[in-house]
Design brief:
There is one protein chain. The chain is α+β, with helices and mostly antiparallel strands. Helix 1 (16-30) crosses helix 3 (46-61), helix 18 runs parallel beside helix 21 and helix 20 runs antiparallel to helix 21 (608-634). It contains 29 helices and 27 strands. The two termini are 62 Å apart. A hairpin with a 6-residue loop joins strand 8 and strand 9 (218-223). The structure holds zinc ion (2 copies). One zinc ion binds next to loops.
Length: 865
């Protein structure tokens, strides 16, 4: 509509871990063997059940058959997101739909992997990673959710092999060193005890050894700068194979400390934990270890302790740090560039506040673990030579990374090659989206035309997962940013501001909303509440409210079309364009110009809620409430008829185009039915979708000022009607004291509108008018309005009605006060209930003020002071 060559590519990623989980669960539950097994473990805990579902199924049917099942599942359910987008009226180019596992994108993934490997930016290493024992895969740091939980800090006594001076410094018993830990079961894998080098309490302990309880091992007491003397006793156990800090300590030592893995990939204790514990679940083992320590009198104490525990973002199982061999991307050089382009404003993040979040993460970025031990995804293009027949092959550890499947080892010609079992992190392929979907690595016309793209619209929760990685990969492989603007959209929450979740049962299905209220009303609601930097509190009532707006527009269009269709000069109306004669037409065109400016500006600045509110105000309150109402009499006047009809049509046409991005369906439907007013020989398109988006016209300040007198007068009379409960049918006698000659003139010229719009029988206008006796007053900036009410209103009856209403409010106050002054209620009731009661109180207060104001006015009318 604004004349740009636009491309919006629809598509989805394969959501590796999540999809695999769903399919595993579904397939497992369909399997009779699985069901029998489940009934056997009925009484065991849920974790065990989950392990079972996993292991039984995936490994039973094997890789190929399993992948085939996932593709089948994908064919059945994978279209859901795309279907929702279509229902929402998203104007994507559907012929270009892409999927991260499709052929072209898979080719791009291989290309990127091989190039990064050849440049040394992808490497394989054996180190501690976050492991999910339920999903059986490594996770990147980002995929671990940290949660503060109430746990226990356990103090364990480790006996020194040769005691230091008894009760040495700080009153510490020289026979033991006590360590504090949140994970006692990992002590089976300790390879040292560490203290801070400057901690005088332990000066004599450094260099000694202790007998590690429950094992036959002796371990050293070492010093390390990272030990916090204030944590626990100041002495900590070091378990390099199960803790990231301990891994760092172990690697700093020369020679490095030993790594002993006592927990396996299934979350169960290994043989290395000792025969008593091997095979136990890690949490079960914790209980047994504590029991055993207690029996040997090595458990000093346990105290409550809050600490952060990492969980798998997909299944919420506690993460186990494990030493495994994984693939990594060295992202630091890529991140440096990605920071630079945002600092230099080559990419803008909107709202700007998110830039800090981006910088904070990018500046502390750690290497990205990209291998996942699942089957659904891009299999890593690495093969391992099984024979290592040459010196070169041994030097390369037989690792072959290749774009095509190698037939033999390039180093030793062996034909025994095995491909890596792992797949890549889903985000590895998503990171390439801006160029892989345009045909990269081929040099396509699409890439030339559309890269760099203009804008990425996304959620704040994937700034690191996705946005940052697209920026890094785009810069690396295209030599330019992938997009200019990143618009971080609001999150849709429920009416109370809570995040929607299945477990809370507060999820709103967009399809249901669209079935109930129409897509236009639903879309408009979201746009209207999408204020930058604030979340959307969604309620069905609001959607219902905007459906009235759709109806209002529809009725306005029907009124206009009816009058055009019954006009004998029908053809001429559209062909001759607008020519302005009367004040109201000049005014509405000027207001249209203002609205157009404001909407264009708001859209350019991603203030979608401002744009929505502007178009809503214009169509409902200016076009429908004023212009169309005034036009109703104008079109009966042969001198005005043609120009007013043309202006109606022109304003409607422009309104539809302004509104189209928000409400695509109703605007297209109406636009198809109306003749189009031509301006400057502009071409008329077949669809509103590619018709021109309105640009600003010049404003008519004179018309706006003059019209404001009419609006003030009518609103003033209506206010008095409303406040004093004057029946709508009562035709009123009004006097208006204008403050300027000009206002007087304009009001007099437009008397017929004034009378009709305010339902007044007689209106007297002048600069020297006095307030008539028995009249109510409304003061505006350019005039004072007096409405004669003597004889129209039974003042006594009205006052007593208001007194009664006041009494009712007083009664409600009494009850509310009793509640709100009750400390018990304030303390115990949920916050939102208290807030609601307070809001009720405020509303009653406002109502009471209005009533008292009305009584005062009525008394004035009645002649009382
Ligand atoms: Zn998991
Ligand atoms: Zn080889």
């Amino acid at each position: 509509m604004s004349g740009h060559n636009v491309l919006w590519v629809p598509g989805t990623d394969h959501a590796g871990i999540a999809t695999q989980n769903v399919v595993e669960k579904q397939l497992a539950s369909e399997d009779p063997m699985f069901r029998t097994a489940m009934s056997e473990v009925k009484n065991k805990n849920i974790k065990e059940k989950q392990f079972l579902s996993q292991e039984l199924y995936r490994y039973k049917i094997g890789r190929e058959a399993f992948i085939e099942k996932v593709w089948k599942w994908k064919a059945e359910y994978g279209g859901k997101i795309i279907h929702q987008l279509k229902r929402l009226g998203a104007s994507c180019d559907w012929s270009r739909e892409r999927f991260t596992l499709d052929e072209g994108l898979s080719k791009a993934v291989k290309e990127v992997f091989v190039r990064l490997y050849e440049e040394g930016l992808i490497y394989r290493d054996n180190r501690l990673i976050n492991w999910c024992p339920r999903c059986h895969t490594a996770l990147s740091d980002l995929e671990v959710e940290h949660e503060e939980l109430e746990g226990k800090l356990t103090y364990i006594k480790y006996q020194l092999t040769s005691p230091v001076a008894p009760l040495s410094k700080g009153g510490i018993d020289g026979g033991y060193i006590t360590v504090a830990t949140t994970r006692p079961e990992t002590m089976l894998g300790d390879t040292a005890v560490a203290v801070h080098p400057d901690d005088s309490r332990y000066e004599d302990f450094i260099g000694k050894t202790v007998d590690l309880p429950l094992t036959k091992r002796k371990i050293p007491i070492i010093s390390d700068n990272t030990v916090d003397p204030l944590f626990g006793t100041g002495a900590v156990k070091v378990t390099p194979a199960h803790d990231f800090n301990d891994e760092a300590i172990a690697k700093r030592k020369s020679p490095p400390l030993e790594f002993i893995t006592v927990i396996g990939k299934d979350g169960r204790m290994t043989e290395a934990a000792g025969s008593r514990y091997a095979g136990m679940d890690r949490f079960e083992c914790r209980k047994i270890v504590l029991k055993d320590l207690k029996e040997q009198d090595l458990l000093e104490k346990e105290e409550k302790y809050k600490y952060s525990i990492g969980h798998c973002y997909r299944c919420k199982t506690s993460i186990e740090p494990l030493i495994t061999l994984q693939w990594y991307v060295n992202v630091k050089p890529l991140a440096r560039e990605a920071i630079r382009v945002v600092r230099e404003r080559q990419i803008r993040i909107i709202p700007k506040g998110w830039e800090n979040t981006y910088f904070a993460w990018m500046e502390n970025i750690r290497d990205w673990c990209i291998s996942r031990q699942i089957w659904w995804g891009h299999r890593i293009p690495a093969w391992y030579c099984q024979e290592l027949k040459s010196e070169e092959c041994r030097r390369k550890s037989g690792v072959i990374v290749s774009r095509v499947t190698p037939q033999k080892c390039p180093y030793c010609s062996s034909e025994k090659l095995v491909q890596d079992e792992d797949v890549l992190d889903t985000w590895f392929s998503s990171a390439l989206w801006p160029f892989s979907t345009l045909g990269w690595p081929d040099e396509t016309d699409d890439l030339k035309t559309f890269y760099p793209t203009t804008v990425l619209v996304t959620g704040f929760d994937i700034i690191f997962f996705w946005v940052a990685r697209m920026i890094m990969m785009g810069l690396k492989f295209m030599g330019d940013v992938p997009f200019r603007d990143v618009y971080i959209h609001a999150l849709v929450r429920d009416i109370k501001g809570q995040k929607m979740s299945k477990s809370k049962g507060n999820v709103v299905d967009p399809l249901t909303m669209m079935d109930r209220y129409g897509t236009d009303a639903f879309r408009f609601t979201l746009a209207a509440f999408a204020a930058q930097g604030r979340d959307v509190k969604f309620s069905e009532e609001r959607v219902e409210g905007y459906r009235h707006f759709v109806n209002k527009l529809w009725n306005a269009a029907r009124f206009i079309m009816m009058n055009i269709e019954t006009n004998k000069n029908q053809k001429e109306i559209a062909e001759r364009g607008v020519e302005v004669l009367n004040l109201s037409s000049r005014w509405i065109l000027s207001r249209l110009a203002t609205a157009t400016d404001n909407i264009n500006k708001a859209l350019e600045e991603y203030r979608f809620n401002d744009a929505a509110s502007e178009i809503y105000q214009f169509i409902w309150h200016e076009f429908c409430d004023w212009y169309i109402e005034m036009a109703k009499s104008d079109i009966k006047n042969p001198n005005l008829e043609m120009s007013v009809l043309r202006c109606l049509l022109y304003t409607l046409d422009n309104s539809l185009r302004l509104l189209h991005p928000f409400m695509p369906y109703v605007t297209e439907e109406i636009w198809q039915k109306i003749p189009h007013v031509r301006r400057n020989g502009e071409e008329i398109q077949d669809t509103i979708m590619i018709s021109e988006y309105p640009k600003s016209l010049s404003r008519d300040h004179q018309a706006e000022e003059n019209m404001s007198y009419i609006i003030d007068a009518v609103l003033g009379i209506r206010t008095i009607r409303g406040e004093l409960n004057v029946p709508p049918s009562a035709a009123l006698n009004v006097s208006i004291k204008s403050y300027s000659r000009k206002a007087e003139e304009i009001l007099k010229e437009n008397m017929k509108y004034l009378k009709r719009l305010s339902n007044s029988a007689d209106i007297t206008i002048g600069m020297e008018i006095d307030k008539p006796e028995g009249s109510a007053t409304c003061v505006k900036s350019s005039m004072e309005i007096y409405v004669l009410l003597k004889g129209v209103l039974n003042i006594e009856a009205e006052v007593s009605r208001l007194r009664k209403a006041e009494k009712e409010i007083e009664d409600s106050f009494f009850l509310l006060n009793k509640k709100l002054l009750n400390e018990d209620f304030i303390m115990r009731a949920p916050k939102e209930v208290v807030e609601k009661e307070k809001a009720k109180y405020e509303e009653l207060l406002r109502r009471k003020e209005r009533i008292l104001e009305s009584i005062k006015k009525l008394k004035e009318v009645g002649g009382e002071k």
